[in-house]
C-alpha cells in the first residue's frame, strides 16, 4: 500500500474517518453492502445519513462473497463496508484469496470499498489490506485508539486522489483539522518506534486476556481471535441475550447483545464480551460471573 501526501488525510480517530468518508462519497438512499453482523458505529452513521444497509450473510471464515455477488446482480449497490482484519464483532481475518475476490467483485460492479482497519494493527503479520488489491476504489480508514490508547483520537484516511477533495471538504465541515500537537506526537512516536513498542505490548496483553477467556469459557461456543480484545458468545436457542445482559448488569458487568451489530431482520441470541475494559486481575472473576449467568440462563 503506497502512502503519499496525495492520498493520506489525518482525522480525529477512525470513527471520524468513517464519518467523513460517508459524508463525502455517499448520498442518502445509497445501498451499502455490509456483513449481517457489523460494527455498530457504522450502523449509526448509516442511519444518520439515510443509507440503506444490505446484509451479507456471515460464515465462520468471513462474509459470503457469493451472496454479495448475487446482491450486486439484483440491486444497484454503491459501496461495500468491510472489516477484513480483526472483524468486530466476529474476529475473523480474511485470507489473501478472499481479499482478492472482494476486490475483483468491487471492480466488476463498480463498488466503492470502505475498509475499516481500526483493529488491524493488533494482528501480528496480517495479510495485505484490501486497499492494496484495489487502490483505485478503496478508502482505508484506521486509527490509534485500539492499538495504542483509547483516548488517542487520531486517525488516518488513505484515499484514491479522485476522492480526496470530497473527503477534505467533509473534514473541514466537521473539525477543520486535527490538532497539530496530537498529530505531531503520533508522527514522532511512529518515527522513534514508540508506536511499534506499544502495539507489541497490546498484542501480548490481548493474548493473555484471550487465554483467560478460553480457560474460563471452555466448553462454550466462543468465537474470537487470539489478538483481539473481545469474544463473541452465541447462546442456546432458548436463551435470551437481553435478559442475560440485564442480569449481568445487576452484577456491575456490562456486555453487549447482538442487536447493536445486527443488520439482518433476525437478531441472533449472542453476547459480545469486551476483555480489555477491566484490570487484568478482575478479568477472571468477571468472566466466571458471565459463565455462571449463561449456564443459569440455559437451564432456567
UniProtKB/TrEMBL annotation:
InterPro entries: Aminotransferase_I/II_large (IPR004839), HTH_trans_reg/aminotransferase (IPR051446), PyrdxlP-dep_Trfase (IPR015424), PyrdxlP-dep_Trfase_major (IPR015421), PyrdxlP-dep_Trfase_small (IPR015422). It holds the Pfam family Aminotran_1_2. GO terms for molecular function: pyridoxal phosphate binding; transaminase activity. The keyword Oxidoreductase does not apply. SUPFAM superfamilies: PLP-dependent transferases. Keywords: Aminotransferase, Transferase. Residues 4-275 form the Aminotransferase class I/classII large domain. Coiled coil: none annotated. This is GntR family transcriptional regulator domain / Aspartate aminotransferase. It comes from Klebsiella pneumoniae. The lineage of its organism: Bacteria, Pseudomonadati, Pseudomonadota, Gammaproteobacteria, Enterobacterales.
Amino acid at each position: 500500500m503506497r502512502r503519499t501526501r496525495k492520498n493520506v488525510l489525518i482525522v480525529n480517530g477512525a470513527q471520524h474517518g468513517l464519518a467523513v468518508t460517508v459524508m463525502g462519497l455517499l448520498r442518502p438512499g445509497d445501498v451499502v453492502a455490509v456483513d449481517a453482523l457489523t460494527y455498530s458505529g457504522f450502523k449509526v452513521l448509516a442511519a444518520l445519513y439515510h443509507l440503506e444497509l444490505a446484509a451479507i450473510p456471515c460464515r465462520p471464515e468471513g462474509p459470503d462473497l457469493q451472496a454479495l455477488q448475487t446482491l450486486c446482480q439484483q440491486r444497484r449497490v454503491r459501496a461495500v463496508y468491510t472489516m477484513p482484519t480483526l472483524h468486530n464483532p466476529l474476529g475473523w481475518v480474511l485470507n489473501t484469496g478472499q481479499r482478492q475476490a472482494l476486490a475483483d467483485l468491487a471492480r466488476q460492479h463498480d463498488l466503492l470499498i470502505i475498509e475499516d482497519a481500526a483493529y488491524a494493527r493488533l494482528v501480528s503479520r496480517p495479510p495485505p489490506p484490501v486497499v492494496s488489491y484495489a487502490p483505485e476504489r478503496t478508502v482505508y480508514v484506521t486509527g490509534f485508539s485500539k492499538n495504542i490508547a483509547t483516548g488517542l483520537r487520531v486517525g488516518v484516511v488513505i484515499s484514491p486522489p479522485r476522492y480526496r477533495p470530497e473527503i477534505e471538504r467533509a473534514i473541514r465541515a466537521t473539525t477543520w483539522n486535527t490538532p497539530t500537537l496530537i498529530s505531531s506526537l503520533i508522527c514522532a512516536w511512529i518515527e522513534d518506534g514508540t508506536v511499534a513498542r506499544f502495539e507489541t505490548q497490546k498484542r501480548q496483553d490481548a493474548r493473555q486476556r484471550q487465554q483467560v477467556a478460553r480457560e474460563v469459557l471452555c466448553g462454550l461456543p466462543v468465537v474470537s481471535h487470539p489478538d483481539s480484545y473481545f469474544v463473541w458468545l452465541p447462546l442456546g436457542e432458548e436463551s435470551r441475550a437481553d435478559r442475560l445482559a440485564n442480569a449481568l448488569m445487576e452484577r456491575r458487568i456490562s456486555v453487549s447483545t447482538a442487536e447493536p451489530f445486527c443488520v439482518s431482520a433476525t437478531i441472533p441470541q449472542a453476547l459480545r464480551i469486551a476483555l480489555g475494559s477491566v484490570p487484568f486481575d478482575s478479568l477472571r472473576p468477571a468472566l466466571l460471573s458471565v459463565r455462571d449467568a449463561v449456564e443459569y440462563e440455559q437451564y432456567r
